[in-house]
Amino acid sequence: MEDSPSHIVLLNCDVCSSFPLPDMLEAHKKYGGMGTLLVNKVSAESANQFGELVADPETNELLHYTEKPETFVSDLINCGVYIFTPNIFNAIEDVLQQKKDRANLRRISSFEALHSATKALPADYVRLDQDILSPLAGKKELYTYQTLDFWEQIKTPGMSLRCSGLYLSQFRHASPHLLASGDGKRSATIIGDVYIHPSAKVHPTAKIGPNVSISANARIGAGARLIHCIILDDVEIMENAVVIHSIVGWKSTIGKWSRVQGEGDHNAKLGITILGEAVDVEDEVVVVNSIVLPNKTLNVSVQEEIIL
């Protein structure tokens, strides 16, 4: 609360979105409530994976909220992006005091305490969804702001690639100067949305894209082909190597004529290939749907493996 902020923005760490915070803040001020939730419509089949809510179609007031219900409630879900006034801390303190009061009123035997200790949450544990959002719903304290733009939850490593593609697509409309271009004559052939850091060196005969992000000081050799991948700092991809549906970690090397790829299933555990920091894939090695931890050297081909 240093500098007495008028509003507080809270973001879940596993969310990919265009984050329309200025528009959301303007709506929040008009509502005049304690908090505003960013919401989105999803299919009825997938709604129960998230916090479902019911909002007044006229005022956008949050009327009902339930976290991951067993039965369908609404196709409107909580996106994990919030704007609160500082009064949210008063609400947290009230809930905390109520929990402590209930704990003091209820006396249990030492045997019960032993068996319930691992199941029950500690008395000073406050959950935003069940303890704050649900009780305040319908009390003109919480409101919703629906995003019509992209929104995803990053629950698997593969979703990082999908989300990177969404941000590159956003650059196409909002910051096109950040995206690379090239026709294969003086610079590499670029297909679709591609970001290349100014310090990276890409051979003119390489073919890059779509959905590729190349970070600082990376070196992409002659004839290399990159599709749907994230290349982190100081990576070297040698001549005629292929990288598809993969994340290549810092300071890694992919040898000549090698192939690093995944199937591209963003929801699967091994739907993409991930190379940790300083992984050396030697010449003519194929790595498919695998996760390789840092500081490893691969001199044989692997498929659907986690290399520790």
TrEMBL record:
Transmembrane segments: none annotated. This is Glucose-1-phosphate adenylyltransferase. Belongs to the transferase hexapeptide repeat family. The lineage of its organism: Eukaryota, Viridiplantae, Streptophyta, Embryophyta, Tracheophyta. It comes from Zizania palustris. Pfam families: GMPPB_C (PF25087), NTP_transferase (PF00483). It comes from the Eukaryota. Residues 190-307 form the Mannose-1-phosphate guanyltransferase C-terminal domain. InterPro entries: GMPPB_C, Mannose-1P_guanyltransferase, NTP_transferase_dom. One of its GO terms (molecular function) is nucleotidyltransferase activity. Residues 2-101 form the Nucleotidyl transferase domain.
